[in-house]
Design goal:
This protein has about 800 residues and is an alpha+beta fold. It is built from 21 helices and 33 strands. Bound molecules: guanosine-5'-diphosphate. Guanosine-5'-diphosphate binds next to helix 12.
Length: about 800
């Protein structure tokens, strides 16, 4: 149409005419411009309906034109209009066609999806069928489940995929792949695969979507009946807040590889050693068809029996007594005196074993004494939540008076709400004045019976034994008032009184059973340690099979050394015990880390305030028993003035290890070994890193040294130098000499004149001098490293194969500590 119009008029601005102008605006205008600019004058108002451009164009042509021309133009206009209408119609038609097309495509896709669903369902059914068949055959012979099930499910599916999928052609690629991956588990992993792509492409967003889609899918499956193709044992999987992949597999009793694979299909690229969160783990657990039981970390402790005892199960138990008092007021003497006369079933002259507690019998009643005098043990136990003591016997020397530690003991007992009995000791001494003690106690709100109060007081003498019976009676009476009861029928619960790493026996803990009965073979958790009772040794040193309430026993079979005050609980399984111990260890670590951070901050603040004047003496303490370590820590904490403070970096029981050295090195601290030694790697590390190790066997010496160091008053001292180590290979008896050790000098030299120490598992057993040093038959002065020799100790016989002899010299040197 436009072509026609354009041709006819030619010449005079013909190109400008007609609908072409309107339709292809630019072209029309160009033509007009060339031909008709001069005449552009008359404005024709007629074609008002048209756009301005058209008006202009027409106006241009109209000027000086004939009617015929006008007609033609009108006609052209009409035609233009007509074409416009036509155009609109065509557009609508096209639009409709497109709409139809879209609808058709939608229907097509829907169809395809439906087909796919059906196909997946069919595949699943087939897989199930195969699985069933296999199981049937397996009844007789065992056949691998998964590898066999997967391919059988695979085949029909792939064949099916080829059919319908080939037809629609669009969106096939990804879908087909999805289906493939979904096959083994009946399309269940399809979403997972998609998620992998998403995760790879879209990072976090992808993962989020994947989790959501997984949930939806699972929801669908839950509603839609059986979701797991393989019928297997459904387990309830305990799921903590985080879990290591391998552990997750373990708890589900699934193969680790299968779990890792499942995780990958859910968009989690992890290895078996990685930790995943509970949400993710839950999806996997459900995917494997198990049940989830969410547990909080602290829930692991819940297995510990917390059932209330029934009244009829409760029986009377012996009271547990701690003796407290000022130093030198006679605590130890009193304990010894009581023990000597009254040890339960003590054979004549029978040697009692020091296990940290013992039982005595008085007036038909059994009393359990904690053989750990001192307030440190009492408080540290209480601090750990083990309220062991029922009665405190406060010893006050009649020839002395109420002293600082007496007051401290009173406060401890009061704080713990434990009743006290006052033992006014040393009544045999000439200047003894029991009444002065009583009046002085009044000032501290301890009103004894003599002063018409309710605190029992007994005059005793540890030396003569006077009043001991009365004291025990008083204790028994107090115990009666307390009506102490326990249930021996339940699983045991106890408190660690002392623990140490014993030579040959491993970690040993003296436990006071508080409730229940502890038996051999019981599985327990104690503090951060756990174990299985291998043997129980009572205070007589005899092996027993069980220990009831208030009975102290040594427990063997721990996996590590617990701390005094740790609570022991018997649990059902080793897994539980281990889990609780691990949880506690982690919790303690976290706490220490948090505390460490706080200290650092505190220190920074303190330092900022107090300027550089204050310096700190950091030390690391290792001791042979928990009690010593605690005593040292307490003593150290008391040292210090405005200028210097002692900071205990770490204190523990056992040999000094490499990790101790590392820790010490980090803070430039010396390592204090109290009756323990550094093992070989630790010694090497200390030498290499320049960490000072100092050994002590008397707390007083240690405190003194630290005090001196702290106040900068280091003078010349006697310093020990280690010159050699020898290992005992053989022990034999030589008449006239006694036990002789056949040794190999492993390090340095052995010197006859030097001091020697006997170490067993890096713990000092004996310190003394050598009686003989022999090489072959001859007495020699020195034996070099790598050579064999015979050694015998002066007045010491208990030597064993495997013990190590430490050879050292003493010399006076400048103090180097601090
Ligand atoms: P602890 O520090 O409280 O354990 O006191 P000890 O038991 O070590 O006794 C300190 C000192 O007092 C030792 O020399 C004992 O021999 C002495 N001692 C303890 N009890 C008596 C007593 O009843 N009479 C006399 N005369 N001396 C005593």
């Amino acid at each position: 149409m436009s072509d026609q119009d354009g041709k006819k008029p030619l010449g005079l601005g013909g190109g400008a005419r007609s609908g072409t102008v309107k339709q292809s605006f630019a072209r029309g205008r160009t033509n007009n411009v060339v031909v008709e600019t001069k005449r552009k004058r008359v404005a024709v108002p007629k074609p008002a309906a048209q756009s301005a451009a058209v008006v202009n164009a027409q106006g241009g042509k109209k000027s000086g034109t004939t009617d015929a021309e006008m007609d033609r133009r009108l006609k052209a206009l009409q035609m233009a209009k007509a074409r416009e209408a036509e155009d609109a119609e065509r557009r609508a038609r096209e639009e409709k066609e497109r709409e139809d097309e879209r609808a058709r495509r939608r229907a097509e896709i829907e169809n395809k999806e439906r087909e796919e669903r059906e196909r997946a369902e069919l595949a699943r059914q087939r897989a199930e069928e195969d699985e069933r068949r296999q199981r049937e055959t397996r009844e007789g012979k065992t056949a691998p489940i998964e590898p066999a099930a997967a391919p059988t499910a695979d085949k029909p599916d792939r064949q099916r995929n080829l059919g319908p999928d080939a037809r629609p052609g669009r969106n096939d690629g990804p879908r087909k792949r999805d289906d493939d991956s979904g096959k083994p588990r009946g399309g269940e992993r399809r979403g997972g695969k998609l998620t992998v792509n998403q995760a790879l492409a879209g990072g976090e967003g992808g993962r989020q979507r994947s989790l959501a889609s997984m949930r939806r899918k699972q929801e669908r499956q839950r509603r839609g009946g059986p979701s797991t193709p393989q019928e297997k044992v459904t387990r309830t999987v305990k799921l903590p807040e985080t879990i290591v992949v391998s552990e997750l597999a373990n708890r589900m009793t699934e193969r680790v590889a299968a779990v890792v694979k499942a995780l990958m299909q859910n968009g989690m690229m992890v290895t078996q050693n990685q930790v995943i969160d509970a949400d993710t783990a839950e999806l996997i657990i459900e995917e494997f068809g198990h049940k989830v039981q969410r547990v909080s970390e602290a829930d692991v402790e819940q297995v510990i029996d917390v059932v209330e005892d029934k009244a009829e199960d409760l029986v009377e138990r012996a009271p547990v007594i701690t003796i407290m008092g000022h130093v030198d007021h006679g605590k130890t003497s009193l304990l010894d005196a009581i023990r000597k006369t009254k040890v339960v079933s003590g054979e004549a002259g029978g040697i009692t074993q020091h296990i940290g507690a013992y039982q005595v019998e008085a007036g038909g009643k059994t009393l359990s004494f904690l053989d750990t005098p001192g307030h440190a043990a009492f408080t540290s136990m209480r601090a750990r939540g083990a309220q062991v003591t029922d009665i405190v016997v406060l010893v006050v020397a009649a020839d002395d008076a109420v002293m600082p530690q007496t007051i401290e003991a009173i406060n401890h007992a009061k704080a713990a709400g434990v009743p006290m009995i006052i033992a006014i000791n040393k009544m045999d001494v000439a200047g003894a004045d029991s009444n002065r003690v009583r009046t002085e106690l009044l000032q501290h709100e301890v009103i004894v019976e003599e002063m018409s109060g309710d605190v029992q007081d007994v005059e005793v003498s540890a030396h003569t034994g006077k009043g001991l019976d009365k004291l025990l009676e008083a204790i028994a009476l107090q115990a009666e008032i307390l009506e102490l009861k326990a249930n021996p029928k339940r699983a045991a619960q106890g408190a660690v009184i002392e623990a140490q790493l014993d030579v040959g026996r491993g970690p040993v803990a003296t436990v006071l059973v508080q409730n229940g009965t502890l038996r051999r073979g019981d599985i327990f958790v104690v503090g951060e340690q756990w174990g299985k009772v291998r043997a129980l040794v009572n205070d007589q040193g005899a092996r027993v099979n069980e220990a009831g309430p208030s009975v102290p026993v040594e427990v063997l079979g721990l996996n590590g050394t617990p701390e005094a005050g740790d609570v022991l609980n018997v649990v059902e399984t080793e897994a539980q015990a281990r889990e609780i111990a691990e949880y506690r260890e982690q919790a303690a670590k976290d706490k220490r880390a948090a505390a460490g951070a706080a200290t650092t901050l505190d220190q920074m603040m303190a330092k900022a305030k107090e300027d550089q004047g204050v310096s700190e003496l950091p030390i690391l303490v290792k001791a042979d028993v928990q009690g010593s370590a605690e005593a040292i820590v307490q003593a150290m904490e008391k040292i210090g003035n405005e200028e210097v403070r002692v900071r205990i970096l770490h204190s523990g029981v056992g040999a000094i290890t490499e990790s101790d050295i590392t820790l010490a090195e980090a803070s430039d601290a010396p390592v204090i070994g109290f009756n323990v030694r550094a093992n070989a790697p630790a010694r090497a590390a200390a030498n290499q890193k320049g960490v000072e190790i100092r050994y002590y066997s008397v707390i007083y010496d240690l405190v003194d040294d630290i005090k001196q160091a702290a106040s900068g008053l280091l003078s010349a001292e006697i310093k020990e130098t280690f010159i050699g180590y020898a290992e005992i290979r053989e022990v034999f008896k030589v008449t006239g000499v006694g036990q002789v050790a056949g040794c190999l000098v492993t390090e340095g030299i052995a010197r006859r004149s030097a001091g020697v120490r006997l170490l067993r598992d890096n713990v000092v057993i004996h310190e003394g001098t050598l009686k003989t040093l022999k090489r072959f038959k001859d007495e020699v002065k020195e034996v070099q490293s790598g050579q064999e020799c015979g050694m015998a100790f002066e007045r010491y016989e208990d030597i064993r194969v495997g013990d190590v002899i430490e050879i050292f010299t003493r010399e006076e040197v400048e103090r180097t500590l601090a």
